[in-house]
TrEMBL record:
Belongs to the ABC-4 integral membrane protein family. InterPro entries: ABC3_permease_C, MacB_PCD, Macrolide_Exporter_MacB. It comes from Flavobacterium silvisoli. The chain crosses the membrane at residues 26-47, 293-316, 337-364, 376-400. Residues 26-256 form the MacB-like periplasmic core domain. It is a multi-pass membrane protein. GO terms for molecular function: transmembrane transporter activity. Keywords: Cell membrane, Membrane, Transmembrane, Transmembrane helix. The keyword Transmembrane helix applies. Residues 296-410 form the ABC3 transporter permease C-terminal domain. It holds the Pfam family FtsX. One of its GO terms (cellular component) is plasma membrane. This is FtsX-like permease family protein. It comes from the Bacteria.
Length: 418
């Protein structure tokens, strides 16, 4: 053990000496490792941060929530031309399923629609996420309020012109004044503000609303002005199963009831999609995995170049210290001692390059977190991975130079240095 500690100490001293005496050459050689480690860890840190954010945003939603619509949330074997012929779900179908389904906690109706502007006197907020829903939405999404309330069933059914504003929207329009009971203008008409959602923070994913930049109002209003078959809106029936319900059994029940209602013939495929959030999270996991693989493939080329650079500098180092190797061997140094000496030196040089790459990732992550208001996290796992990769590159690229150094004949080595 003492021998290896002494080897490590001497190798570190040799590595530092190489850095001091051949700064430009050594730094150019380390650049490949630095760029390679930086590329891999930067990609992994960014993907992990995105994954963490998406999972946090989805954590407030029940992953068993079912979205019944004419569109698929994920990959499907149904061809596009076929999907375009699927009819939209209707309000009447929502009412039928609400009354007839078993093991369901709540069912609501929603229109996915384009964003709009909201005005209040001289102030205007653009690109507001418009959430047109029935009154059950508040329970399906477990919404919380800083002020006021959500609209009730009577207001929902009549399409009364009331609106619940997201926290940021209310703040932008009313500053610190109480917005409850005040009116805002959207879709060219006046709406009374009856509630403000509790501040939630920026969301990386928005399924069905609930963030601070949304406005919630009765879907019956939108149905009244757009009708049931307008391309500007996509109707969706949202079904929240009871806790412990058999999801596959519920999916089968939904499919059978809607097929019967629509008169779909036996043997024909469903002309609708029963989407589950759990399937969406699986798709996101697959996407995240693909991004990681792509990052690895691209970054490995940088690591390959870095490995060649380290191997090159180690061969040069062996050449420059041939005389010293001969003296060490003539004084009794074993081949193993010489081998580990150069191997440790290669590993230490690569680890230094890797640490520089990790430091750059950390600095850039701090800057981007401040500028973009998105938390980029350089986790301990990625730090350990980066350091381990650097050490592995040093081991692989240093093995041949170390072996060649350990096999030098001491007499020839001393003579070549004279």
């Amino acid at each position: 053990m003492l021998l290896y500690l002494r080897l490590l100490k001497e190798s570190f001293a040799f590595a530092m000496n190489a850095l001091r005496n051949n700064k430009l050459r050594t730094m150019l050689s380390l650049l490949g490792v630095t760029i390679g480690i930086f590329s891999i860890i930067a990609v992994l840190a960014a993907v992990d941060s995105l994954d963490r954010k998406i999972k946090a945003d989805l954590s407030t939603l029940d992953k068993n929530t079912i979205y019944l619509t004419s569109q698929s949330f994920g990959p499907t074997t149904v061809p596009r031309w076929k999907r375009e012929q699927f009819p939209n779900v209707t309000y009447e179908e929502y009412q039928y399923l609400k009354e007839s389904l078993n093991n369901v906690e709540n069912t609501c109706f929603q229109y996915f629609t384009s964003s709009q502007s909201i005005k209040q006197d001289a102030k205007t907020v653009s690109s507001v996420n418009m959430i047109a829903v029935t009154s059950e939405f508040v329970d399906v999404q477990r919404m919380e309020f800083s002020e006021g309330r959500f609209f009730n069933e009577a207001e929902s059914n009549s399409g009364k012109q009331v609106v619940v504003l997201g926290y940021d929207i209310a703040k932008s329009l009313f500053d610190d004044f109480d917005p409850i009971g005040k009116t805002v203008r959207m879709y060219g008409q006046q709406f009374t503000v009856i509630g403000v959602t509790k501040k939630k923070g920026e969301s990386g994913i928005d399924i069905g609303g609930g963030d601070d930049t949304s406005a919630f109002f009765p879907s019956a209003f939108l149905r009244r002005i757009y009708g049931d078959n307008n391309p500007q809106v996509l109707p969706v029936i949202i079904i929240k199963p009871q806790r412990g319900a058999d999801i596959e059994e519920l999916k089968g029940e939904i499919s059978q009831k809607l097929r019967n209602l629509r008169g779909v013939k036996q043997g024909d495929i469903d002309n609708f999609f029963v989407n589950i959030l759990a399937g969406l999270t699986d798709m996101i996991d697959n996407l995240i995995g693909s991004l990681k693989v792509g990052g690895w493939i691209i970054s490995l080329f940088s690591l390959l170049v870095g490995g060649f650079g380290i191997a090159n500098i180690m061969f040069v180092s062996v050449k420059e210290r041939t005389n010293l190797i001969g003296i060490q061997k003539s004084l009794g140094a074993k081949n193993k001692f010489i081998l580990f000496q150069f191997l440790f030196e290669a590993i230490i040089l690569c680890v230094i390059g890797g640490l520089i790459g990790l430091f750059l990732v950390w600095v850039i992550a701090l800057i981007l977190t401040q500028v973009l208001s998105f938390e980029f996290v350089l986790g301990v796992g990625n730090i350990m991975l980066g350091t381990g990769l650097a050490a592995a590159i040093g081991l692989i690229s240093g093995i041949l130079p170390a072996v060649s150094a350990s096999r030098l004949d001491p007499v020839e080595a001393i003579r070549s240095g004279m």
